[in-house]
Each structure stands twice: as structure tokens, then as C-alpha cells.
């Protein structure tokens, strides 16, 4: 498929006039895209969905019918180029992101792209370079944990110095279940990618190496799949990050993070997976059933920040470099799964 031009002479979109709503095209309306359509239509101020696109025509029609004034556009590139679109939200499958993001750059439209930015290092880096040539930040990547109140507070503890120099980060990421085709490499690209961005966000530096310890697999995992795994990152300054990834627990959605510093430690995620002792001496609690229940508020906060910035023709959140860095680390992680070796993360120069 031919690359979409990102030349500046293509038709740029101006900032949205004061008082007008941001008109958004949503590409891909599966679980995540449909959730974003609902958020933009009912919980986020200053925007409305005008165009819906999905490779499944019936699904696109169903979602569009739930939004007054929205219409279906069968071609995603035509949706991006539509005159009633000021910004684009991409929730389509990862292999489609490269062409779609580049088309947004060609029209100079702000875009919120769900991870991954693209599915390989080279295309992700070309997007970083193309955006830099425009001289404007237009690409925001959907790492919603940066908008979660607990992660924000943990980052503040780091910046304030209350915990002293951060030394280690321990992460836990568990799902009740995943499709049978969700293999060990997908665990890195689709799940561990969130901890990759969390580590970069909290520690403020790049990840230098990745190692994966496979260990014993759960009986729920198909033959040849490694689940759970322990992923170990080392940052440029030598800080260590551990991530237990276990996607077939059969229990619920558990995400916790502990930051260990020279002056103390802090853990987040406990309020959502709390264990309590009752007066009768019995232990009990509730585990969050899914990612939307755990991070729904963060998704909406992410959307609101993006809408507010997109109305000005820019972004407010993790950008294309953050998306590229995550792709690079995950690529090293996949190699670590395949080889069992400690793999160095290879990245280009930041424009």
C-alpha cells in the first residue's frame, strides 16, 4: 500500500473557533472505540462524533445510530479527509495505524491513536520524523494510565523528592482471561506495553534493556504459551523495573505498582483490589472485573485533555516519541521472549 504524503502543502485544519465543538472521526468501533464514542458523546465536553468508520459495516452503523448527527464513512482515509472532521481518534487494529496516522499528519489534524503507534520500529520512527518536520505536535498516544489519579500522584511523589531517588519499580498486571490466540509475544505488545510507558512516565528516562523469565505456565495457557512471565527492564541510569504479566488468572483484572525509593516506598492499585478483615475475622474483598471498570475515569480524563488541546490544534499527553519508545521496547521484549536473552533496546535519535 502506498504511503500517504505528509507534505505541508496538503490541506491543514485550523484550530476550532471559540464556542464551536470539536468534530471527531472515530476509526475502529470495537470495544475500545465504541467506549470512546460513548465518552465523547456523553461524558466529555466540547466535542461531538461526526463520522464513524469500521471494517465491519454493521458495527459502524450500529454505533453511528447511537450518536445524533453521526454518519458512517466506509473508507477510513475518506473519513480523515471529510470536511466535517477537525480531529481523529484511531482505535482500529494496530496494522492500520501507520497509514491512518500519516493521513492525519497530511491534513495536519490532531489525532489520538490507541496503542500501538505502529506495529514496527521503522514505521513508528518515520512518523516521529514526519511530525517533527511539520513543527507541530499533532499525535497523542492512548496511554491512559498517565491520566489515572493514582499514577499521577505517584509521579508527583517522584518529582517532589518525597521518596528520595527512585531505585526500583515493581508492577503487577493480571487479566481474568484472554482469547486463545493471545500468545506470549502478544502479552508483551498488548499488555506489557502499558508498564513500559508507566516506567518511562514515573522514572522519567528510557528503558535500556529487557529480559523475560518464563517459568511455569498455568494450565489455562495453550500448549507452548508462557503465562505468567516476569519481565525485567533496566533503565539508562540502572534502575530496575519488574513486571509480572499473567493474563489467564481466571479471577479478575489486577493492576498494581510499587515504587521503591531511598526514603520510602509507595504502592498504588490497592484500593481497586482491596482485601479487608471483617469483625468476624474473615478476609474478603473485590477484584475489578475489567480494564474499563479500573481505568474508565482515566480514559475519560484522557479524552477531555485531548479534546481541549485538539481544539487549539495540538495535544496534551504522551506524544509520538512515547509511542515510538514503547514500540522499540516491546520489540526488544519480543526478542527476549524468543531467545531467552537479555536484549538491548535500540532507538534512533530524538528529533
TrEMBL record:
Top EC group: oxidoreductase
Residue ranges annotated for the Gfo/Idh/MocA-like oxidoreductase C-terminal domain, each copy included: 155-345
EC number of the protein: 1.1.1.18
Record-annotated membrane-spanning stretches: none
GO MF term list: inositol 2-dehydrogenase (NAD+) activity
Reaction catalysed by this enzyme: myo-inositol + NAD(+) = scyllo-inosose + NADH + H(+)
Ranges where the Gfo/Idh/MocA-like oxidoreductase N-terminal domain occurs: 22-142
Swiss-Prot/TrEMBL keywords: NAD, Oxidoreductase
InterPro entries: Gfo-Idh-MocA_inositol_DH, Gfo/Idh/MocA-like_OxRdtase_C, Gfo/Idh/MocA-like_OxRdtase_N, MI/DCI_dehydrogenase, NAD(P)-bd_dom_sf
Highest taxon in the source lineage: Bacteria
SUPFAM superfamilies: Glyceraldehyde-3-phosphate dehydrogenase-like, C-terminal domain, NAD(P)-binding Rossmann-fold domains
Tagged with keyword Oxidoreductase: yes
Family indicated by similarity: Belongs to the Gfo/Idh/MocA family.
HAMAP family reported for this sequence: IolG
Function: Involved in the oxidation of myo-inositol (MI) to 2-keto-myo-inositol (2KMI or 2-inosose).
Assembly and oligomerization: Homotetramer.
Protein name: Inositol 2-dehydrogenase
Organism listed in the record: Microlunatus panaciterrae
Lineage, opening ranks: Bacteria, Bacillati, Actinomycetota, Actinomycetes, Propionibacteriales
